Amino acid sequence: MAERAVERIGGDNLIIENLHYSYGGKLSIFEGLNLDVRPGEFLAVIGPSGCGKTTLLNLLSGFYSPERGSVRLRGKPIAPEDPNLGYVFQAATLFPWLSAIENVEFGLRMSGMPPKERRERAQRYFDLVGLSGFENYLVLRLSGGMQQRVSLARCLAMEPTLLLMDEPFGALDAITRESMNDELLRIWDELGQTVLFITHDIDEAVYLSDRIVVFSRPPGGIYKVVKNELPRPRSGPTTRTADLFWKYKKELIADIAMVTAQRPTDEAELAELKLSTEIERKAEKQASRDTEN
Predict the structure, then answer these.
(1) Per-residue 3-state assignment (H helix, E strand, C coil) for 152-221
(2) How many Å apart are CA 248 and CA 234, to the nearest integer?
(3) Is 266 helix (H, G, I), strand (E, B) or coil?
(4) How confident is the model over 198-240, as pLDDT tens digits?
(5) What pLDDT sits at residue 2?
(6) Cross-strand bridge partners of residue 195
(7) Do the beta carbons of residue 205 and residue 252 sit within 8 Å?
(8) What secondary structure letter does DSSP report for 140?
(9) What is the torsion angle, in degrees rounded to the nearest 10, for the CA atoms of residue 293, residue 157, residue 154 and residue 44?
(10) Where do the domains of the chain lie?
């Protein structure tokens, strides 16, 4: 058997217990949310805009602090600087003045890893996401799909045991998106990390996940959890045309229709979007300052 280019990382258990959070102490988003994500599990979260999906990721990453309850990884409270935590944003959030490989190296450089070691590790993950030959390209010269691969490689290079992914392929065209789904499953199968994946796309949720969590309107939290028994490994044409795939898809379409029919909370949707954008903007500014230093 061929030697692996990268070592299997494995995943950790994520426990969310009695989580309460509101915007400004007035607009309640979660009231007693509970969720247990098993080590190495691929968990998808879907729901209408404003239901708290991105807010959940910001709570899990430690960017937001819960009013009550806890979020624990490896049995310990989670924090933004936790090296076991990786976050892939909706946008690639790359540095346009750096080459593709330099973007992948960025987190390793900030952690103080010596140049030779960080270049070797960055190259391993660069190759893993299928970008060999594009190391010295400025990211602005890469397609949207390739930029997301660079972003994913940068996250993976830190070797986290938990990946938080906030609609990472949402801006891609349908063909590129399906290709990235296959790439992500290949990488996940090789590295074995725990993944919590936010998406609005029901097909994507069914294709990727072990379980699918459907969120309701705030402050409802979890509306339903669906155990996904589609066999692995999964392949595009075979899996997407399987009777079980369509069964889950129809079930989830009905669930989302029920949730969407609930009284919408426009303030929650606007607040979530505003705070999510603010988090990304702050992260980019901090990264820019770190680069200049």
Answers:
(1) HHHHHHCCCCEEEEECCCCCCCHHHHHHHHHHHHHHHHHHCCEEEEECCCHHHHHHHCCEEEEECCCCCC
(2) 15
(3) helix
(4) 999 999 999 999 999 999 988 878 999 999 999 999 998 999 9
(5) 38
(6) 42, 163
(7) yes
(8) G
(9) -130
(10) 14-84+163-292, 91-159
**CA-closest candidate to residue 11, choices 230, 187, 225, 263:** 187
- CATH superfamily membership of 14-84+163-292: P-loop containing nucleotide triphosphate hydrolases (3.40.50.300)
Give the residue ranges of DSSP H helices in the chain.
Answer: 53-60, 100-110, 115-128, 144-157, 174-191, 202-208, 236-240, 243-260, 266-292
**What are the CA-CA distances from residue 27 to residues 21, 51, 290 (Å)?**
9, 12, 35
Q: What pTM did the predictor assign?
A: 0.86
Tokens of 173: 């065209």
Could you tell me which of 219, 292, 214, 286 has the C-alpha nearest to residue 257?
214
**Is the Cβ–Cβ distance between 12 and 250 less than 8 Å?**
no
Contact 268, 29 (CB under 8 A): yes
What are 96's two structure tokens?
Answer: 């346009």
Tell me the CB-side half-sphere exposure of residue 101, using CA atoms within 13 A.
18
Q: 112: exposed, middle or buried (C-beta count within 10 Å: 0-12, 13-18, 19+)?
A: exposed
Greatest CA separation for the chain: 58
